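Hi R.,

Here are the chain sequences for the assembly we discussed:
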Amino acid sequence: MEIKTITSAHISTFFNSLVQSGKVVVAPVLKQSGKVFFEPVQSYDQVSTDYIQTAFSAKSVVFPKVEELFSYKKKEDGDFDFNSDMSDVPETVVWGLRPCDSSAFNYLTDFFLKENPDTYFKIRKERTTLISISCAQADAACFCTSVGLNPGSTAGSDILLTPMGDTFYAEISTEKGKSLIDPALFTDCAEKNKDEYLANVETRFSMDEIKEKIQNAYESAEWRHESMGCYGCGACAFSCPTCTCFDIQDEGSQESGKRLRCWDACGFSLFTKHASGHNPKSNQTARRRQRLLHKFKYSVENLGVVSCVGCGRCIRVCPAHLNIFENILNVTKA
Amino acid sequence: MSEFEPKIVAFVCNWCTYAGADLAGTSRTQYAPNVRIVRFPCTGRIDFMLLMKAFENGADGIIVSGCHPNDCHYTSGNFHARRRWIVFRSLLDFIGFDTDRITFSWVSAAEGKKWAGLVDEVTDKIKAKGPFTDLDKLDCTKLKEMYDEAIAK
Amino acid sequence: MKQLQNKVAELFADGTISLMIGFKNSISGQPVPCFIENASETEQLIYNKDCKNNLSVYLHKPEVKQAKKIGILANIATLRSLVQLTSENQFWDIEKTVLTINDQEEVLVFGNMEEVEAYVQANFPEFTEEEKKLLEKLEAMTREERWKYWTEQFSACIKCYACRAVCPMCYCQQCTVECNQPQWIKLSAQTTGNLEWHTMRAMHLAGRCVNCGECGRICPVGIPVHLLTVKMNQDLFEEFGSRSGYSLKGEYALNSFKTEDKEGFIK
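And here is the predicted structure of the full complex:
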């Protein structure tokens, strides 16, 4: 881990140099609707700095909402041309992730690459650099400290910047991060304590306690009550930085077409419906229970980690404002 | 230099307009060959999404035509269709779709000449407007394309 | 608040309801829908101008319908939805008790749907200033500008179907997008597919939407989807005099016709 410092005045220079270098720079942008989204930008003055969390995660950089897996076209001789060329996936820098978001990339990497490596994800991830910014503020929906993270965590990021008055404290964790550092802008410095510059995120529960209690949560009678308000849309899954479910759609004709990988959500009523017509999760209670247990129990069993990073997006984006940590607490009340 | 030949898709009802088009044919009336006719039992069967899908699949212009009011073979199909068209046309205009590219008409089985004239008129109109490109390049799945677009803005 | 809580407790006590759908405070300060199944929980109930969710959508949910006797707290838009849904015969299998809080902050309990209809007709809501402004702005644009506006909006759509999920009028057991033989509406969240979805939805709701504005309010990416159906309702009222959520015997404009319907664009 390398530690450096950069003045606040130089941040925009650093940012703009990333854009000049030819990389695609994706950063938080304030939209007309008042929400902040990750979008490709051309200069630092487009970047929004005054927000607590973006509406959606940055996972679309490595796991796009619609991804073309391949396309086909009929040739004159009747044979087909297949194209799954990914050479034009650009070098990308994601700027302004929160520590919870960059930690989520670790989970995504485990999920997509551990057992059966997904080429599409692999190529995108290799070409992506993550520059996170610590949280100076949090709101009632944030709960990263309950899932083993904190507002100044370097997990998953290539560079973590912490605003400290008129400088930014930079913690560079990877070679990729190192390659972006311009010695003219960044200077070495001693290790500093970030605590006074970080938000105070209320701890809602102890993860160790939950891990134990959740083993018996399946039968809890609270699930029904907790899930009544769920509308069954996909907003929570789509805004979540660790949700990875997808659907494969073929669009085209006999002449040409493409195969697409699209985001899918376990909240949809037909998500688990079999071709036979049987639906093992035929009511919203079962579906919501599946989603929460997946985050807090099944991911632990499958990949060794809790897949929720406490970013709070599902709470903010839910039309019924269902609260994931309140739900977990209620179903694990012994 | 080859002139632009528009692709016109016509959604017509079997009993009136299709028969009218047939009459134009048997009368050896000459008219623009650009139209591709899709036959429906009644205009009441025409789903509004079909119009959008025709454009997605390469149509430059659309004709929707059926029996005159009170002459519907199924009594009231065209009345329902008329209401649907009024609403759909307003929606399309609201979202900025070029409703000039869609022509609605009543053509009866005896109006072969009217059909031929209609096709000629629509073909000329769309030729003057040029190919329909509003739906091209709307979908981009590659981040780089998005980036290029952002720069162009 | 106390009046509401006491009233609901009474309804539980005399067996009129076994489930109450209302609002409670959430940890982030925003009111959220809540479901109460006995009188001891009535202290959670609140009501203020931030209670915007249209709760009538929950009356379609199997988990809720199990209760058979359901109380529901409705604002004026929700009352309109209830009238519209009743005219579409959607409440044949539940007994519901409808409550509202009027401008004088009194709690009203309706005895039957006719009383709800009368109340709605007496207090029929107009478009909000915000809606009027945005509609005017859009109508003042040229066609090309409107196309640019809407395609830009739709490019952000992620097909989460939250707009469908919160809409009380979208109660189809299997939505058109969920039929895949043929796959009528593209499922992928690309602009063309998004355009197809929103156009189709606006048409299926034309004349049925009650302008609660929920779809546009809760859209996670901020698309004002409610404007599409608001515009449709405006048109249907101007063309055919039809108004959704106004009468229990209301006729659906696209299910009916008049031989004298006029249009100027059919050759």
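Chain A touches chain B at residues 24, 26, 39-42, 61, 64, 66-68, 88-90, 92, 260 (CB under 8 Å). The two ends of chain A are 42 Å apart (CA to CA).

Let me know if anything looks off.

Best,
T.
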